[in-house]
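Extended Data, panel c. Modelled sequence:
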Amino acid sequence: MSFDFLGEDVKEVVRERGFEVATEPQEKAIPKVVSGDNLLLISPTGSGKTEAIALPVLSRLEGGEGIQALYITPLRALNRDIVGRLEWWGEKLGIDVEVRHGDTTSYRRRQQALDPPDLLVTTPETLQAILPGSRMRENLGNVNHVIVDEIHDLADSKRGIQLALALERLEEAAGGFQRLGLSATVGNPRDIMNLLVGVDRDCSLVLVEGGEPSDFLIESPTYQDRAREVRRKTMLSSEMSSHLVRINELIDNHVSTLIFVNTRQMAETLSSRMNLLDREVGVHHGSLSKDRRVEVENKFKEGELDALICTSSMELGIDVGHVDLVIQYNSPRQVFRLLQRVGRSGHSIEKDSKGVVISGDPDDIAESGVIVRDAIEGEMENIVPRENCYDVLANQLCGLTLETDDLTIDKALEVFSRAYPYRDLTHEDVVDVLGLLEQGRVISRDEDRIVRRGSTWKYYYSNLSMIPDEKTYEVRDIASSRPLGKLDESFVASFAKPGEVFITQGKMWRILNMEDDVIKVEEINDPQGTVPSWVGEEIPVPFNVAQSVGRIRRKLIDGDVDFNHYLIGGEAGEKLMEVVSRQTEAGYPVPTDNKVVVELGKQEAIINICGGHRVNKTLGQALTSLLASRLGSSVGLDVDPYRIKLKLPKKRSSVVKEVFPVNPDHLKPILSMSLKNTSQFKWELMKVAKKFGVVRKDADYTNYDTEKLMDIYSDTPLYREAMKEILNHKLDIEKTRELLCQFGEEVDVRWCQGFSPIGSLGLESGVDIISPEETSESIIRTIEERIENDRVLLFCINCEDWKSKKKVRHVRDDPVCPICNSKFIAALKPWEEEKIKKYRKEVEDRDVENLVKSANIVLSHGRDGVIALAGRGVGPTAASRILRDLPEGDDLYRKIYEEERKYARTHMFWD
């Protein structure tokens, strides 16, 4: 047995821990680690893989000075779990285990420098932070083992290749050391091995099968009687109400349920609505404060929550105790993510992984079926590490300069080209990057020597993190001053202002004021709250998955789909058959893996193509460029994995026939020319510029002259890096070109007038969260009660001396100024006093104009005018629409509700 390879003291503690039989990963990995091999262990969640690597490393620690082993994890949250587990072993074995990350106190840092632990648990960024320090670098000189946990999570981001360079810098300090990686199942393990060990180093691979869903079903519940009550209470659409009913049933039938969603926005939506149904659920995502995340993790672990709704923040091995069911809400988009998520159920290699996917529209159902089937058959996506990223190289060159007194360009090239992602790095590459750093006065050069400056330290430590910078605002509960989480700048800019209501932690909060980077809020009860939308959350659907969805459609035409093969339940299968039947009955061809259907409206065109996100984005970008040049006007673009949606000026959709299909040979030149004019490229250019230090980290994209930035750096590594990131990782030119080459031969193109049932699914993209159609009496009562209890600011336009804040319910039917008896009274929101100041100063602008319009409305309609103006997002123009030809009864509040819904849908697009 593999435990026999461990030292006697470790074997004794293994027995004390109750490990009687080694798991398969332990049986295969322990002998190789003990023998000193570099090793990548790929194994399912809950298979004992941490101990498979950690135990032989603990067995091999020889004592002595300095840090002997590093355990690197991608998340600080994982550090908490790992330290707890390793400390137990360390205490039994007399091995000092400590953690070091951004939250470590200055006192603990000093203690670690003076008396280093035997094993240090840390993150990639913290390793790079401590490498240049003379005392800690000396301590790291004794490192013999480096374990990188969850390496797959780092592999496809710039954090991964940054760590690869950092390990080469560590090798300069410590000499050779054993490299050990832990990974979930991926489609291309060799690439992950190369990232771990670099060039010309041997590495063993231990691959343990398992983790595929063994008890699984895809469901798409239909609207039934029980959903009506849920819809009334939550104001959700009929579809989402049906989903919520089924989710509640599943929770009731299990002890501990994790509910995975694809976005933070959906996590907040589900949790808020479930709380309205008196469910004890928690929510867990990256924008919540650390204390809040730890709190819900512990509550779930202790059984205080019925369920925990989470995003990818819970995919990795954070310990939340036993989970007996995983619900995936909507398609997981990728096989890899499904395995990670469902693997949390059972969380043991001996126990079955049990899960349910709750799917919505037919695309989502088919996509979920493909992903579940691929997971069962072991068909995984590849995780492709980035290569030769110049912004990462710039930062790491500065780090190496801080650590090396006499650094030459050739030495830097020698060190960094040992990292596999930089194996093709050239002398010219290094010189070009150094030129930019020298231009920014970050470093100096003395012929072939690289010389640090005083500013080198500041630049290096300011740009250690390769996680994209976006300004965030802290949200605080005004009652307790407790931090609730953070909101992204994009959400704040488009939505947040005093009086607005949004949802976080599953509760409703009203914004009271915004000062600097802090938003103060109060908790309220309002089911209409807006859910924050976070940028960059969309999980892309791969090309192969989208093509398989097309194959399912093709089989549906022929009537030979075995839904059991895809684990698609009865109602879900019926929805798939229904949409294909409606398509054919309406006389439209069905878009499949080998058939593209182009549908033309008056000003819109929908290209139904099963290409996945990146291929469809690539083709869509090329098409909009060609169309814009022909029409002399911009063309709107939206894509999903199965459609490219084009919005054209005037009634010119027929022009699409002139440019589609795109010539495969013209694809890359078109994109290279057109991408530089897109907001996507300008955003990427700003991100890279910040990493190079040529733009301040707090610079605002919306106010920055990106055109000038492009002109200055057009022929530099900065520009090339931004363009490379878009072309290689946001788009997929090669796969798109390959697909275009099949047009006319293996792929048929059909043209139609009007939009088909399948094409129209794209026009209805996104989940309709708020119930549309009819507005129930209970909702009207809720709106009325809220408005009656809201405060309004009344101001006399005539004398300018009287103003009063009061609840709407206390406003008389015919408001009159108590000072001058004028009825010319403006009704404002309580936070709009600035408008009164402007009016008194006789400022001429839109605020003053609206204030006067408000007074005219109150003069004409009395208290009804005040009520209308108290609606959320309702100004004088909307209030006039509400009050025009107003019938009797509840119609005032009904029309206010309609205007509020319109505002919620569209206000982010207003000037």
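Confidence is low (pLDDT under 50) at residues 532-536, 765-775, 907-911. This feature is highlighted in the accompanying rendering.
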